Amino acid sequence: MKCGNIIRVWLLPVAALLLVTACGTVEHKVAFDSAYRVQPGTKVVLGPMKNQTGQSFDIDVEKMLADAFMLSLKEKGLDWNGGDVPKLVLNAEIVQYEKGDAFKRWLMPGYGSTVLVVRGSLFATESLPVGSVDAKRTVDAGGAYTVGAWETIFRSVADDVIDMLADQVKTRASSPADLDPAK
Q1: CA atoms of 87 and 125, how far apart (whole Å)
Q2: How many angstroms separate the CA atoms of 22 and 7, rounded?
Q3: Which listed residue, of 3, 97, 141, 161, carries a Cα 20 to 30 Å from 63's Cα?
Q4: Read out DSSP for 35-104?
Q5: What's the DSSP call for residue 108?
Q6: What is the pTM for the complete model shown?
Q7: What's the burial of 112, exposed, middle or buried (CB within 10 Å: 0-12/13-18/19+)?
């Protein structure tokens, strides 16, 4: 009888925890060519966003990615609004996207995963590539908390990339070694 009470007491919190938790992978990298020097005050303008998955979706994945990048750029103060400030152009390609299904993830982790893989290039001018961007996020497990991951994953990937880009721009623009013309 005591064992049954203990099980009931723990079953509800454990079930609730499983319902609201999410697990997945996060990978992202922003790399500049070693010869490129970021200038202080550099801003970012979005170039083309392309769906390179070879699939058609019932949502506009290119627009969702562009909107997510733009929101993240604005929040970080990196969005280029014209003028004579130095700028980088960010082009990106969606190389893998799977909408996934929260109910399936809840049934069995890994089943119904939501996946977004983005690769991009950074350009100093239209024809001068100076860096690359790689980002991957998955939502592999979880329940009710992961409903809508097919949409929020775009913002998560954009935030990953722009946060790292902001750090790179700040670090590389302020690094005395990078500003030394003799290097």
Answers
A1: 8
A2: 24
A3: 141
A4: T--PPTT-EEEEEEEEE-SS---SS-HHHHHHHHHHHHHHHHT-B--SSSS-EEEEEEEEEEEE---HHH
A5: S
A6: 0.79
A7: buried
Cα–Cα distance, 46 to 69 (Å, whole number): 8
The matching CATH number, chosen from 3.30.70, 3.40.50, 1.25.40, 3.90.1150, for 22-179 is 3.40.50
Each domain of the chain, given as residue ranges in start order, spans 22-179
Distance CA 178, CA 171 (A): 9
What distance lies between CA 21 and its chain's CA centroid? 20
User: Amino acid identity, residue 60?
Assistant: D
What type of residue sits at position 140? D
Q: For the segment 103-160, what is each residue's pLDDT rounded down to a tens digit?
A: 887 788 778 889 999 999 999 987 899 999 999 999 888 766 677 788 899 999 999 9
